[in-house]
Amino acid sequence: MTSPIRTERHDEILVIISDNQPVNALSAAVRQGLEAAIKEGVADASVEAMVIRCDGRTFFAGADITEFTKPPVDPLLPTLVDMIEASDKPVLAAIHGTALGGGCEVALASHYRIAVPSAKLGTPEVKLGLLPGAGGTQRLPRIAGVKLALELTAKGDQIPAKKAHEAGLVDRLAGEDSLEADAIAFAREIKAARPIPRASEKVAAADPDAVAAFKKDNARRFRGFEAPLANIACVEKATDGSSYAEGSAFERQEFMKLMMGVQSAAQRHIFFAERQASKIDDVPADTQLREIKRVGVIGAGTMGGGISMNFLSAGIPVTIVEMQQEALDRGTGTVRKNYEATAAKGRMKPEQVEAAMGALTPTLNFDDLAECDLIIEAVYENMDVKKEIFTRLDKIAKPGAILASNTSYLDIDEIAAVTSRPGDVVGMHFFSPANVMKLLEVVRGAKTAPDVLATVMALAKRIKKVAVVAGVTYGFIGNRMLMPRQVEATKLLLEGATPEQIDRVHVAFGMPMGPFQMSDLAGVDIGWHRDPSRIENIRDALAAENRWGQKTKAGFYDYDEKRTPSNSPRVAEIIEDFRAKSGVTPREIPDEEIVARTLYTMVNEGALILEEGKAQRASDVDVVWIYGYGWPVYRGGPMFWAQSEGLPKVVEGLEKYGFTPAKSLKDAAASGGRIK
Ligand code: 3HC
């Protein structure tokens, strides 16, 4: 097998080049090649300095994550980077693309770093539930100080080369197109400079205030996660007077702990699951895509406006249609307000706001959609209304235009059937707020054409969404799984639990909020029959009293002016009344029962969805819950979590509370296999 590493001589400079596509991950072959090349450079008396660079789109993007579950192969990355640093001839890292994780650590161990202005550096291991385990936590604070080391390691932020240059992390910026030549010239300048600057020999000043402030500022973000704290502890170790060797031994120990833990396994699972989700089993990757130059959006409400922003932000012009001028003005006004709020936070330039708004064409004329390549209907959930819209669209849309519905529950096939082109019809289920939430459920109808599906999946990537293919089923993947949770949560209230108890169990699990906090945010009146005299469950009773959630300052909780929730005595009464009316004597509900009835039932529904072929793979279900509903990523999504919880335990829990476990779940539990 040929090595991914080759060397080229430029007189006294040895250039070591990696070519391991697509991202130059530091696989065993790459590490072995680098080790051999460095040894060659050190041994050859005519070599005076070495440059390490990569072919293709990026400098090393990290350790090869696929190797993490395999037996280790020498040289291990920490050994290799120490060997690079120990070289008695200067080594220079020449960076383009993204120097991430182990790649960044190769750069930190090199004696000098030169980067093109478009390059980025970072140690995103924390996003995989890990820490930079090849000296990164020890060298970063020594080179760039505690503050930046914390941002990079514990948050996993990437920084642009220019900022890295200012912070002393990069010694020199190269020309965008002349990296190799500039690196060789730099190597010639420093080839004789002594002492050779070695990061491990530097001393990093402790900064306890910065550490305390960092922990406080990020407490919410880090809640439940193990890796950020381990990263912080390692950075602190680099500054507490310990030697480099002691610090790196500590780093190694912490790295191995995280690596063996379930959180990192979950986060690595999601890394690959997210990438896998974009692949459609029976649609070839090279399917010819349809060109999308202009998008039409029907409905300028919260959803329509949010959906439009995704395309505008990606530079794709949008025609947005409403029935009334007032609604149109309100909708476009909200889009502008949202952009201006982003600009006020410094995350957008004023000219970018104007460019996005300039690409938005508001209109009352439905026929203006004729020029759009993709038209997304985002009106309220009513089959008759949607059918009427698609009948009209069929008449005016140009041939080949993709016709999408943003329905969250309804049957795409029934909608497609009113058109003469069901192959062009697809579901695009955005999650609210649509300009923020990463998930897009792409609903594949019975007749949706493969190229329509492939085009929408590719477009999702362009607008920075994580797209998952779902089949036609009520509520698709996410909302269908939400249903048993909501039903059981409400039943538990009747039987004796309180909203606070159920929400507490969910928040402790890692959810951003519990089912009742979510109801209050979304609106208790959603889906309500609007007849105050008809009270069939606790939700009806709340809705009948105008307790519609945060918007009416009362729902399952009471809210003050600042929307701070407090437990509601009135809700306790309503629940009591309803229990009395239903003849239910309340009982103590153990937390474990809440978990089984509101979370195991979701897993069960996920298994049924998979059995019915409405999701392609278990990991897709996980991606839906991570990106659409805030399921804690360190638990890897419901299907991964069930697996780590133990499928026999899940099956047992379901049966204990009277549910019928899905066949696939039972089979996998019995055989010790996985849900696929
Ligand atoms: N190891 C193995 N495979 C990797 C990989 C890695 N570190 N990084 C990316 N890949 C694979 C992806 O799975 C994908 O495979 P596929 O085509 O079969 O689906 C392919 O490379 C291309 O990746 P993307 O689709 O993500 O390409 P993008 O251009 O969108 O993004 C990237 C490129 C920014 C480099 C992104 O892939 C990324 O963030 N990679 C992970 C970086 C990372 O986490 N590095 C740290 C690794 S852990 C480590 O280094 C431990 C050390 O400290 C000891």
TrEMBL record:
Any one GO molecular function term: isomerase activity
Keyword terms: Fatty acid metabolism, Isomerase, Lipid degradation, Lipid metabolism, Lyase, Multifunctional enzyme, NAD, Oxidoreductase, Peroxisome
A biological process term (GO) from this entry: fatty acid beta-oxidation
CDD domains noted in UniProt: crotonase-like
PROSITE patterns linked to this entry: ENOYL_COA_HYDRATASE
The reaction(s) this protein catalyses: a (3S)-3-hydroxyacyl-CoA + NAD(+) = a 3-oxoacyl-CoA + NADH + H(+)
Superkingdom of this protein's organism: Bacteria
Keyword Signal: no
Residues passing through the membrane, by range: none
Record's subcellular location: Peroxisome
Alphabetical list of SUPFAM superfamilies matching this protein: 6-phosphogluconate dehydrogenase C-terminal domain-like (SSF48179), ClpP/crotonase (SSF52096), NAD(P)-binding Rossmann-fold domains (SSF51735)
Pfam families in the record: 3HCDH (PF00725), 3HCDH_N (PF02737), ECH_1 (PF00378)
InterPro entries listed in its UniProt record: 3-OHacyl-CoA_DH_NAD-bd, 3HC_DH_C, 6-PGluconate_DH-like_C_sf, ClpP/crotonase-like_dom_sf, Enoyl-CoA_hyd/isom_CS, Enoyl-CoA_hydra/iso, NAD(P)-bd_dom_sf
Gene3D superfamilies: 1.10.1040.50, 2-enoyl-CoA Hydratase, Chain A, domain 1, NAD(P)-binding Rossmann-like Domain
Domain 3-hydroxyacyl-CoA dehydrogenase NAD binding: 295-470
Pathway(s) where this gene product acts: Lipid metabolism; fatty acid beta-oxidation
Domain 3-hydroxyacyl-CoA dehydrogenase C-terminal: 475-559
Keyword Transcription in record: no
Self-association state and partner proteins as the record states: Monomer.
Family statement drawn from the similarity comment of this UniProt entry: In the N-terminal section; belongs to the enoyl-CoA hydratase/isomerase family.
Descriptive protein name: 3-hydroxyacyl-CoA dehydrogenase
